[in-house]
């Protein structure tokens, strides 16, 4: 898909596939098009080029397919004067199978008064309320755009616990777009990273981390060891150098005694791959 707003290109020839019953992390720096991608998939805006399909059907031409997708985020979905219970009832009418009992249960856990008016909620509680609705709709594909925006640490942890519990009881696809990578890296199974208006990485967390290596040692020995490998970052201290490598290490690559090999996490990988002007292989 391709999408521009005026002369500003946001997404260019983007292509991806979200598998059923899988938890994804949709990652990218501010303004790279993550929210735009979610808006396109959920039918809120239209692509300039390309199409979105679900089980082979174009979702913008099929109301039943659109009803299988639900997205929440920073965009305002409800009128400020509406009471939360009214929004819940409207959602239940639009989505048969909507779990109102679960809504009430979650509202109590997050200490939300369902008689409150939506417009009177703080940013954090608006986020929580929309997250609750997303966990309770009967849809198969749920997209969260910054689902912990404005939440304190306690409520963020509660949200993650409820998401995992909900997924265990009724598996479906969750796509979580967030900047707090360290908080979700143990929840997600697959990662999609957006940068430079396109998707630069789309794979399982297991496969990605298996290729994330930190190689450190003397400049000469460490430099020789990483020859031919994809280096995405480096750091220097005197005669010691550390290379962040994203590549497979073949069995024939001998590790010298003066060189040390370690791993690094998803957050560091993301920073290296998306750093402005960084050393990134675009192939």
From TrEMBL:
One of the record's GO molecular function terms: ATP hydrolysis activity
Domain ABC transporter per the UniProt entry, residue ranges: 2-221
Keyword set, alphabetical order: ATP-binding, Nucleotide-binding
PROSITE patterns found in the cross-reference section: ABC_TRANSPORTER_2
InterPro entries cross-referenced by the UniProt entry: AAA+_ATPase, ABC_transporter-like_ATP-bd, P-loop_NTPase
Keyword GTP-binding set for record: no
Keyword Methyltransferase: no
Pfam families per UniProt: ABC_tran
Name the UniProt record assigns to this protein: ABC superfamily ATP binding cassette transporter, ABC protein
Organism: Ligilactobacillus ruminis SPM0211
């Amino acid at each position: 898909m391709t999408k521009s707003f005026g002369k500003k290109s946001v997404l260019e020839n983007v292509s991806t596939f979200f598998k059923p019953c899988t938890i994804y992390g949709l990652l990218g720096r501010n303004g790279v098009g993550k929210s735009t991608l979610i808006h396109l998939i959920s039918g809120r805006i239209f692509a300039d080029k390309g199409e979105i399909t679900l089980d082979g059907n174009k979702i913008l031409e099929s109301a039943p397919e659109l009803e299988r997708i639900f997205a929440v985020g920073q965009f305002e979905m409800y009128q400020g004067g509406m009471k939360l219970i009214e929004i819940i009832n409207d959602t239940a009418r639009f989505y048969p199978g909507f779990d109102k009992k679960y809504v009430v249960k979650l509202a109590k856990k997050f200490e939300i008064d369902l008689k409150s008016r939506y417009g009177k909620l703080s940013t954090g509680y608006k986020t929580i309320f929309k997250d609750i609705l997303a966990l309770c709709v009967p849809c198969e594909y749920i997209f969260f755009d910054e689902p912990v925006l404005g939440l304190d640490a306690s409520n963020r942890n509660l949200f993650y616990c409820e998401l995992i519990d909900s997924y265990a009881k009724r598996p479906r696809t969750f796509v979580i777009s967030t900047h707090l990578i360290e908080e979700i890296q143990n929840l997600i199974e697959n990662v999609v990273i957006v940068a430079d208006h396109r998707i630069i990485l789309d794979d399982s967390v297991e496969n990605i981390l298996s290729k994330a290596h930190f190689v450190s040692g003397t400049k000469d020995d460490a430099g020789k060891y990483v020859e031919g490998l994809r280096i995405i970052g480096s750091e220097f201290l005197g005669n010691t150098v550390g290379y962040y490598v994203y590549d497979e290490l073949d069995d024939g690559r001998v590790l010298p005694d003066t060189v040390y090999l370690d791993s690094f996490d998803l957050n560091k990988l993301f920073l290296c791959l998306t750093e402005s002007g960084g050393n990134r292989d675009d192939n």
